[in-house]
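Table S2 (text version). Query chain:
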Amino acid sequence: MDSRDRHIEIWAECLKIIRQIVEPAQYETWFEPIKAVAFSDSRLTVEVPSDWFREYIESAFLDVLRRTLQRVIGPEAKLVYIFRTVSNQPAMRIPGQQVPTPENPAVTVTTAPSDRPSPFVYPGLPHKVKINPRLNPVYSFANLVVGECNKMGITAGENISMSPGNTPFNPLFIFGGSGLGKTHLAQAIGIAVKERFPDLVVLYVTGNEFKTQYMDAVHVLNKLTDFLAYYMRIDVLIVDDIQALLGQGCQNAFFNVFNHLHQNHKQLIFTSDRAPVDLKNFEERLLSRFKWGLSVQLSQPDYATRLAMLRSRAEREGVVIPDEVLEFIAGRVRKNFRELEGTLVSLIAHASVERDRPMMELAASITGNLVGEEKTDVSMEKVQQSVCEYFNITREELVSKSRRRQIVQARQIAMYLCRSLISNCSLASIGSEIGGKDHATVLHSCATVADLMSTDKVFRKYVNDIENMLVPSGGQ
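Corresponding structure-token output:
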């Protein structure tokens, strides 16, 4: 080979070694675009697409480059970059990132201007990222009802929103079943960040959308580098349903995005229908990174939280619904927030049409037909038996006129559970069965239990434990 082509030969030898070290997707994205330009006095000069490109390979592959150059050229090897910039457009920078001076003594940087357009502009986007964060304003912290089921997640989210990327909660991994508020919490964090830090770039995207964009970038547009560069410019990245990121190529791309954002103190927020340990067909290196920050499970809401959510949503809709109707719905619909909201919206719609029909009758019909009310064999006798067993008292004590605190609370809980778990159970029938009380006493007892559940963690555990004895699938 002509000595004038010595640089091509050296770089080809380097690429052979690098190909054996890095993964195929990384090699294709970050090394194939590099062109050897010249070689002299142990100095190999290469051309990279932009200064931003140089910054990334310096941060991600510095050791690989150093070892490879010294192996091919010798211990005195040096690498010199040149890159092309557009005359009317500055080189791309991650928002807020300080460009470090390379510490590698084997690397220096020079520039050469050119009119060739920068390839690091995602199609249709200007250099300075101004994108729609795709956040629904309804999903704010103000519209989140706090309960034991989500308190830890909300607390972590509020901390993140005050200092995104600079808390121990990076990444924040939110997991749980359908309808428990994962999307709401994740977007609430994004909304709060945008309110406090308007200049930060926030993006909400689903796992399926990320995968589709990746496939388009690779197979249709041939713009994988642009695709990665676009995502690496985000300050707060929210990926909903991350379990959808299947496929080695897609996961390789996401791995690069994750590493770059995390290393630059950008905030990552993920939601999933299962815990990281239960994700299937994911690379181990990704799973380990999901565990770097905080994993929070959202569980099924208890009665007090369900009732608070219904009251909040009714207020937001500007409608007045009797407490006894909301309590009835909260007692019947126990699975998740989504079904609760669906039931309430359906009730409001039916009530606006069937104005003469009692609202409680409408609520009973809707909870049975729309949600698919659970059929159980719970009876007043079984409720009393479970309460007595839990508190280690006799039925005679339960229905007596005793004013001992334990007996009174057990009696009130029995009334509350009868009303919550048994269909078509009137207040009068409950009072008659449990101590010969009138309907006003039963109503007061139910209200007392609901209030205590919202303020007393130990008392709430009593009620939830007994409810689980009666309806194990309720998940309380």
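Notes on Table S2: The longest strand covers residues 35-40. The beta strands are 35-40, 43-48, 78-83, 107-109, 172-176, 202-206, 236-240, 267-272, 294-298.
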